[in-house]
Give the backbone structure.
Amino acid sequence: MPTKSEDYKADQIQVLEGLEAVRKRPAMYIGSTGEAGLHHLVYEVVDNSVDEAMNGHCDTIEIILHSDGSCSVKDNGRGIPIDNHPQHKVPAVEIVMTKLHAGGKFDSDTYKVSGGLHGVGVSVVNALSLWTKVEIHRGGGIYTQSYKRGNIDSKLKKIGSGEDSGTTVRFKPDKSIFETIDL
């Protein structure tokens, strides 16, 4: 017998903040917690690099499945912006990696075409990973930031200099989320 509407009350409505919703209901974002969902993580990071290529900013994408079960995707695109966001006052990469519905794909001047889960892709990957590390080559500098289960583990820091540009995202899927973590 169906539940009466009187049994469905305001105190049953949950509001999940940040990436908490992704970790609680991952299949809503990536389809499943099985092998297909696991592979979806890789596709989301690759989609960002492909978007850079489709928009004329990148001509090389490298994907590595590491022996420790992590995956890295490296491109020679523009590199995720590292300057502080004018509204949020934190590095833009931090927003892209930790906030749903944040990214350059909402601005039609930044990306004329794009694929993937617009504005949630890499933040979802980050949320569903045991750890994520991003390395950005941009504006003559090399920068890095790390995350654990979607949360910031280290502040953005400059680790060197160089003339290349691009982004490397390396992540290890969280075995507490997935049925298998064999990529």
